[in-house]
Amino acid sequence: MPSICIEGWILNDTYPTRVRHDLANFHLPIEYAGEWRRDTHPRSSKDGRCVTVDSPHAGTGRQVWLLDVSEIVA
Fold first, then answer.
1. FRET pair for 64, CA 20 to 30 Å: which of 17, 37, 41, 57?
2. Is 51 helix (H, G, I), strand (E, B) or coil?
3. Dihedral sign computed on CA atoms, order 53, 20, 73, 46
4. What distance in Å separates the CA atoms of residue 30 and residue 21, rounded to the nearest whole number?
5. What angle do CA 57, 54, 72 make, to 5 degrees?
6. What pLDDT is recorded for position 1?
7. What CA–CA distance (Å, rounded) separates 47 from 38?
8. In a 3-state reduction of DSSP, which class is residue 47?
9. Helix (H) and strand (E) counts for the chain?
10. Average pLDDT over residues 62-73
């Protein structure tokens, strides 16, 4: 499980920590289980203010979703 450290923050998909900020929850359709599962590893922008994740939850296949985390990391 890859992690990214941004100015005192660790960004990852799952990890047991004392303090946790859930950024989003995405429904995983049954057809994306097993071999065709999606990559849930988040990726950060260089400035640490945005995060992208892959999710097929909107019914349009795998899409990249951009999350603004600037208020959390400020």
1. 17
2. strand
3. negative
4. 26
5. 100
6. 43
7. 25
8. coil
9. 1, 5
10. 86
